[in-house]
Design a protein that fits this description.
Elements (H helix, E strand, L loop, with lengths): L9 H56 L36 E6 L8 E6 L3 H4 L3 E3 L10 E6 L20 E5 L3 E7 L4 E3 L21 E9 L6 E14 L4
Parallel strand pairs: 2-3, 4-8
Antiparallel strand pairs: 1-2, 1-5, 3-4, 5-6, 6-9, 7-9, 8-9
């Protein structure tokens, strides 16, 4: 005789549903914790290693290309020292930076006495995983116009985490193959929209500057864990010295 099928008791069904839901929540929670650890810790470790490697390669290139001490000028045959010389030949415009390659270091004492990051060409995701990114087309360090730099606020080493702490009078120093350039912050960080690209213009909009000059702009995301806005900080060149001066 065939047995008759009977539906499971309601309490059994309830226990099965609760157990399944608990397992799903536990799995989801574990994944969230692992992802958070990856974002907060592992991307920072990778970024610090990448930044250190970029910095070492950059310093090696500078050391290899440093000119030896040259003797004093020797008069050309047939010339007399102190007489008028032919006008110096105009130097060609410097070649553009290679995309994704470090060309400078940036120091911000406000972030810590040993704080520095390499500056790479471009603001695509890859350069920003290794340091700071130079807005392509903006000025060179110490040059006329606006030397504009972007960095992550959080993740990948949190390079610009403390940008809100910058205040007028703080200094930012940039070093490249030829010199050291000290910029002085002229205004507290300003919150702007991502569409306000004029903040990195040669004369940055909404900045304290109204005429052409030699400026620095630092940008990062805002809020700290979002990207709906940007923070912009503007500084003005106040000092230069040759690269060999230390």
């Amino acid at each position: 005789m065939r047995s008759r099928w009977s539906p499971p008791r309601p309490d059994v069904v309830l226990r099965l549903v609760v157990r399944t839901f608990s397992e799903v929540c536990l799995t989801a929670g574990t994944l969230i914790v692992l992802f958070t650890a990856y974002v907060l810790l592992w991307t920072g470790v990778k970024a610090d290693r990448a930044a250190a490697a970029e910095r070492d390669r950059l310093r090696d290139r500078w050391a290899a290309s440093a000119p030896a001490a040259a003797p004093g000028p020797v008069p050309s045959p047939g010339t007399v020292p102190g007489t008028a010389q032919a006008p110096a030949r105009q130097e060609p415009a410097p070649a553009p930076y290679e995309p994704g390659r470090a060309f400078a270091e940036l120091y911000v004492p406000r972030f810590g006495k040993d704080w520095s990051r390499p500056v790479l060409e471009g603001t695509d995701p890859e350069p920003l995983k290794k340091g700071l990114g130079h807005y392509t087309g903006s000025a060179r360090p110490g040059g006329d116009g606006n030397f504009a730099v972007a960095g992550h606020r959080r993740t990948y080493g949190d390079p610009f985490k403390d940008i809100p702490e910058l205040r007028p009078g703080d200094t930012v120093t940039v070093r490249d193959a030829t010199g050291w350039y000290t910029y002085t912050v002229r205004a507290a960080p300003l919150r702007v929209l991502p569409t306000e690209t004029g903040v990195v213009a040669p004369v940055p909009r909404r900045s304290p500057f109204a005429t052409p000059g030699k400026y620095l702009t630092l940008t990062t995301c805002d809020p700290e864990w979002g990207h709906s806005h940007r923070l912009a900080v503007w500084a003005e060149l106040t000092g230069t010295r040759p690269a060999g001066s230390g």
